[in-house]
Amino acid sequence: MKVTISRLTLAVVSVAAGAVFAHPSLACSMHDGAAAATPADMHAGHNMSAPVVKVADTGGHQMHAAMAGSGMGVVDPGGMESVKLGDLELTGGFTKAMLPGQPVGGGFVVIKNAGAVDDVLVAAESAVADHVELHEMVMENDVMKMRPLKDGIPVPAGETVELKPGGLHLMFMGVKEPFVEGGTVKVKLTFKNAGSVDLVLPVGPAAPMKM
């Protein structure tokens, strides 16, 4: 893969699921010869098929990254204790280490609903970020897109929903301090029926970008 960097003042942005994510402070381009994206292009979905990644610093603090594929090697480091909330059981939670100055980070967890009533993950919050959003990655017309789920993430009765790289995930927005491998990240999840629960996500290694 050919990588073109206009200035070397960049940080790789952690994207849950290994996709291109454009925060309002970021600019991103995934097409051969294309210029950095405008604010109108940001977070609307990003083409993941092109082999060229451009990283631009047009304002002294613009950062940006491309993480193609389904997670770029992001794996669960293990260590999160199983947590029960009513009929819900949460396991396998984790996040990954971030680079200095990186403003967003992804969070993942497995949610099992052993009850007879559907539930919905409606919100998440954490002291380590300005706010936390519920996101999903989808492939539309050969374009990988990320979008917030304003109505939450359904957790049907008798089923297991996995928040994982390349699919549903938490997005920590405006992270105050980069996540450090070996550390932990606290996050509160709120469900429509079951209520709220506090999780401690172990921080695994940062996944390398494949060239």
From TrEMBL:
PANTHER family given in the database record: BLR7088 PROTEIN, COPPER CHAPERONE PCU(A)C
Keywords: Signal
One Pfam entry name: PCuAC
SUPFAM superfamilies per record: DR1885-like metal-binding protein (SSF110087)
InterPro entries hit by this protein: LpqE-like, Lxx211020-like, PCuAC_sf
Protein name: Copper(I)-binding protein
Alphabetical list of Gene3D superfamilies matching this protein: PCu(A)C copper chaperone
Cleavable signal peptide: 1-22
Entry keyword Signal: yes
Keyword Signal: yes
